[in-house]
Amino acid sequence: MASTSDIRNGLCMNYNHDVFTVVEFQHVKPGKGPAFVRTKLKSLTSGKVIDNTWPSGHKIDEVRIERRKFQYLYKDDMGFHFMNSETFEQVSIPEDLIENNDLMVDGMNVEALYNANTEEILTCELPSFVILEVTYSEPGVKGDTATNTTKPATLQTGAAINVPLFVNEGDKIKVDTRTRAYMERAK
Q1: Which of 7, 44, 70, 144 could, after both became Cys, cross-link 122 (CB 3.0–4.6 A)?
Q2: How far apart are CA 29 and CA 105, in angstroms?
Q3: pLDDT for position 36
Q4: 161, 166, 165, 164: which is closest to 176 by C-alpha?
Q5: C-alpha dist (Å) from residue 11 to 27, 44, 119, 172
Q6: Strands 49-55 and 79-84
Q7: What is the separation of C-alpha 56 from the centre of its chain, rounded to a whole number of angstroms?
Q8: Is the predicted pLDDT of residue 165 greater than 90, yes or no?
Q9: CA-CA distance, 161 to 181, in Å (whole number)?
Q10: In the chain, what are the domains?
Q11: What local confidence, expressed as pLDDT, does residue 129 receive?
């Protein structure tokens, strides 16, 4: 058992029969009354973000989480299949545990978060940025670059994102996997 003094960003805990991670926290000591800790928690199973406040010294149930590296192999009707980079064993991860899974390419290295007590996969995290090729995009109109307008583009994985007008088919671009946003052209 840990207490509120042990709360830090990234700490995982059991709360309301679910596993949550601390996104941000603030220790508040008002001029009148007892101190408390205000937190923002994200569920590792559903992705829902909640706010919670605990009195200072409150006991919390900490969960030990392990990060394991996997390499993406393929997708079928059972889910996404990965190979553990250390033991070479293959695991199948359901589609709902991988956010923005349409940005994955074969051979991509990802990290899976495991509950160390139950050996259950909680979520799978893609690298922050990936470089993908644009397979379809409408041609940009010359002289239409005075504003930050965007156009839809289809990437090699089938994902659709918005890109600036100067991006053409065949260009390789850097995409943020957390926000699905265009970052820059790849060099």
Answers
A1: 44
A2: 48
A3: 93
A4: 161
A5: 15, 12, 18, 36
A6: unpaired
A7: 30
A8: no
A9: 7
A10: 2-62 (2.30.30.30), 65-125 (2.40.50.140), 129-185 (2.40.50.140)
A11: 93
Beta-strand (E) ranges in 29-128? 36-43, 49-55, 59-62, 65-76, 79-84, 90-93, 109-115, 120-125
Place of tokens 């805990």: 13
> What's the CA gap between 24 and 37, in Å, rounded?
11
CB 98 within 8 A of CB 104: yes
Give the residue carrying structure tokens 């709902």: 96
CA–centroid distance for 93 within its chain: 15
Which residue in this structure is represented by tokens 């928690």? Answer: 41
- Residue 48, φ and ψ in degrees, nearest 5: -70, 140
3-state helix/strand/coil string of 129-146? EEEEEEEEECCCCCCCCC
pLDDT in tens, 73-88: 999 888 899 999 889 9
- 3-class SS of residue 162: strand
pLDDT (tens digit per residue) in 30-57: 988 999 999 999 988 778 899 999 998 8
Nearest in space to 116 (alpha carbons), one of 45, 47, 62: 62
